[in-house]
Amino acid sequence: MDEKLQPTLDALGERFSAQQQKFGAEIYLVVEPGQLVEFCKTLHDEFHFDMLSDLTAVDYWPAQEPRFHVVYHFFSISNGIGIGLRVPVPGIEPTVPTIESVYPNANWHEREIWDMFGIYVEGHSDLRRILMPFDWEGHPLRKDYPLGYEEVQFTFNYDQIDKRKPYAKE
Amino acid sequence: MLEQTEVTLEDLKHLVSERALEGETVLLNMGPQHPSTHGVLRLLLELDGETVVSCIPDIGFLHTGIEKNMESKRYEQAATMTDRLDYLNTIGNVLVYCLAIEELTGLDVPPRAQVVRVILCELHRIASHLVWLATQALDLAAQSVFLYCFREREHVLDILELVSGQRMMTTYFRPGGLWRDVPDEFEDTVRQFIEYFPARIEQYETLLTKNPLFLERTQKIGVISGEDAVRWGLSGPTLRGSGVAFDHRKANPYSGYEQYEFDVPTASSGDVYGRYVVRMEEFRQSVRIVKQALDNLPGGPSRSDNRKFVPPPRSELGTSMEAVIHHFKLWTEGFDVPKGSVYVPIESARGELGVFLEADGSNKPYRVHYRTPSFVHLQVLPKLAVGHLVADLVAIIGSIDIVLGDADR
Amino acid sequence: MGLEQKAGDMGIVTVGLEEAVNWARTRSMWPMLFGLACCAIEMMSAQASHYDMSRFGMELMRASPRQSDLMIVAGRVTRKMAPVLRRLYDLMPDPKWVISMGDCASCGGVFNNYAIMPGVDEVVPVDVYVAGCPPRPEGLIHGILTVYEKVYGEKVKDWA
Fold first, then answer.
1. Over pLDDT 90: what percentage of chain B?
2. CB–CB of B367 and A126 under 8 A?
3. Complex-level ipTM beyond the 0.85 threshold
4. Are C41 and B66 a contacting pair at CB < 8 A?
C-alpha cells in the first residue's frame, strides 16, 4: 500500500466520517450507500481520481447484516495512486445508488453485479442481465447458488449416467 | 431449452432512436456467428440505409463461470483455469494471479524468475499483437498480412513450447517464480527471434502504413478524444491512440520493469489509424525490452524456496524428512493464504488487466474477480460507431482489439 | 488385354459410383467458420501457411451455413449459445459432418459448472472428436483425415 495515499485517506475519512479498515495489507474506506455519489464526485473533482478501475461485489453468506460488500477501485492517472472503497449492503433487498453520472463506464459493471449477485442499482439507465441469458432465474455468483456441475463418468457408473444423458438426434 | 425466446423491441425501447419505432430505420442482427466479430459477439444494429444510427452489443455467449469455478478449487488448481480467460495473452492472466497471491502471502520472487517473467510477457505481447494485425487486416481484405503474421507467431509458439511443453495454455508462472527453469537453448532461440523480427515489422509496414486504401478506410473512423477515453475507463493502446501517455509498466511497475528503458508510444488522432500506429510501435519497444532483459539474465534459482508454498525439488525427497512432509501437505491440502484482499493491475496487450483477490485464510480463494479490458472497451463501441457505415464498424471492432473470452469470463 | 486396357486407351475409366461420389465429397469439403474460443486460434493456425489445410481441399472457410459441408465446433459452448448452434446445424444442407474440436466441445473440458454445456453432442450429432486443450494443428488435421475415412465408408443411400 502506498504511503502517498495516507493523507488522502485521512482527509476523506474526516470529511465523510468514513472508517478506514485494514484488509490484509490494503486499507479500504468503508462508505454508507447514501453518501456514495457525493463521495465519488469529490474523488473525481477534488482529488483527481479520474478512472474507475473496477466495480465488483463479495458475498459473505451466511452473514446477513451486511451480506454483500460492493467494492470500488479508482485510479489517478496524474498522481499514479489507486484507492479502494467498500460499501456494505444488507442481504434483504440489497440496493446501491448508481455512479454512472460521475464515471460513465460504471454502466456495464453495475449491470454485472445485478446479474451475478442480485444487487439492485438505483437510478441505472438500463438494468438488464448482461452475461446470463435474459430469462435465467437466480443470481449465479451468490454463495447459496449451486455450482451446477455434472457427475463424472467413471467406469463403474458409466452406463447409469449414459442412460440419463441426452444425446442429439439428427 | 433449445427453443429461442424472442427479444422484443419493447425491452430495448430506451436504447434505440424514435425512428425505429416508426419503422423508418431497419433493425439488423449481426449475429453471434459472424466472420468479423472476433468471437461470439452479437450486435443489434439500427440502420438507416447503410449508416449506423445506434448499436447495442449483447455479450454472454462465452460466459464460462470461471470466477465461481475458481472458488471451489485450491489455489494451484485454480491457476490452470486462468489461462482460458484471455486466450491470446495467456501468460498475463497467470502473472496477475501469481502477483496477487505473492502480495497477500509476502512470498519473494528470485531475480532470475523476474527477468524470465518479463521476457515471456513481452513475447506474448508480440504474439497477441500479431493476431490483432492479422485479423484487422483480414477484415479490411488484406489477406496476405494474415498469412505473414501467423508465420511469425509460429516462431513465438515454438519458444513457448520449448519452455513449457505447451503452445498456448502454458500456466508457466506459479506463485513464487516459474514452474521450472528455462532450458539451455532458450537464450539462443530468443536471440535468433529478436534478430530477424524487426525486418518483418518493416515488411508489414510497407504493406499497410502508407497504403492509400488502408488510409481511406482507417483515418477519421471511430474517433474518441483523450478526455472521453479516460472517463470511459479505456486503457492500453486504445487509450494511448488518443494521446494519453499512461502505461502501468511505468506508473506502478511490477516484476522489475523499472530497470528497463523503453518508450510509451502515443498517437494524437484518436482514430483507428492512430491505434494501429501505436501497436506497430509497441512491437519495436517490446523487442527492445527483450534484448535488455536477455543481456542481464542473472543466474540463480528460478522459484522461491519458502517450503510452505513452493514444493521441494524431487531430488530432495529421497534424503530429507521435512521435504517429504512439505510435499505431502502441498499435494493433499495446498497452501493457505492469510485473510485479506488486494487488487493488482498489470499492463496486458489489450489494456489494464487486474485481479481482485479476497482470501479468508483457507486453501481456496474466497472471491476472485478479473477486471478485464475487453469488457470495459466494448461499452464504448456504441459511442464510437454512431454515424459510420457498417463496413467501418468492422474496422472499429478490430481496432479496439477485443477478445470475447476476456469480456465474458 | 482386358476390358480395362482397351477402355483405358479410349480414355474411359470404370469405378464404382459410391467411390466416385465419396472421393468428390472429401476432396472439396468446405468447413463452416464456427470458432468460439481458444481452439479457434489453433484452427486459424492450421489454416495459415505453416500447417496448411488447403492441401486437403479446405481452401477457404465459409461463414454462411448454406455453402458449407463440415462444421468444426471449436471452443466451449455455453447454454446461451446452444440454440444458435442447433439452428446453424439445421440450416446446413445434406450431406454434412461435424467435428468436435478440443476438450470443451467434446466433454466440457476443464469446466464443470452451470454455464457450460458438457459436450456438444447433446446438441448436434458428432462424427469425430479431437482431444486436446487446444489440440495442435496436426491433431486437427488428423481429425479431418479421420472424417475422410468415415466418408469413404458411406453408402450413397445414407444421404439420399
1. 27
2. no
3. yes
4. no
Beta bridge partners of B57: B43
Which pLDDT does position B207 carry in this prediction?
A: 87
Residues of C in contact with A147 (CB under 8 A): 112-114
Handedness of CA B47, B48, B50, B54 (dihedral sign): negative
Instruction: Please judge whether B59 and A125 are an interchain contact, meaning their C-beta atoms are less than 8 angstroms apart.
Output: no
Write the pLDDT tens digit of every residue in C129-153. 999 888 999 999 999 999 999 988 8
| pLDDT tens profile B249-285 | 888 888 888 889 888 998 888 889 999 999 999 999 9
* Residue-by-residue DSSP string for B132-194: HHHHHHHHTT-HHHHHHHHHHHHHHHHHHHHHHS-SS----EETTEESSPPPTTHHHHHHHHH
Among C42, C44, C33, C65, smallest CA distance to C130 is for C42
**Which residues of A fall within a CB distance of 8 Å from B408?**
131
Q: Considering only CB atoms, which chain B residues are within 8 Å of A134?
A: 5, 7, 11
- Amino acid found at A143: K
Cell output for B205: 509496414
CA angle B309, B311, B312 (to 5 degrees): 130
DSSP state of B376: H
DSSP per residue over A54-100, as a string?
Answer: EEEEEE-TT--TT-EEEEEEEEETTTTEEEEEEEEE-SSS-EEE--T
Look at strands A120-122 and A81-89 and give their pairing.
unpaired
Sign of CA dihedral A152, A154, A156, A158: positive
Element (H, E) at A23: strand A19-23
Amino acid at B332: T
Q: Are B131 and B212 in contact (CB under 8 A)?
A: no
Q: Is B36 helix (H, G, I), strand (E, B) or coil?
A: coil
- CB within 8 Å: A132 and C80: yes
To the nearest whole Å, the CA of C135 is away from the closest chain B CA by 10
> Contact A146/C112, CB-based, under 8 Å?
no
Chain C nearest-CA distance from A149, in A, is 4
- Interface contacts (A, C; CB < 8 Å): 33
Q: Which residue of C has its CA nearest to A151?
A: C112
Residue A153's closest chain C neighbor by CA?
C107
Which among A80, A103, A141 has the least Cβ separation from residue B252?
A80
**Distance from B132 to chain A by nearest Cα, in Å?**
24
Chains in contact with C, counting 3 or more C-beta pairs less than 8 Å apart as contact: A, B
Secondary structure (DSSP) of chain C: --HHHHHHHTT-----HHHHHHHHHHHT--EE--B-SHHHHHHHHHHSSSS-SGGGT----BSSGGG-SEEEEES--BTTTHHHHHHHHHHSPSS-EEEEESHHHHH-TT--SSSB-S-GGGTS--SEEE-SSSPPHHHHHHHHHHHHHHHHT--HHHH-
pLDDT in tens, C9-39: 777 777 888 888 888 888 888 888 788 888 8
Which residues in chain C have their CB less than 8 angstroms from residue A133's CB?
A: 79-80
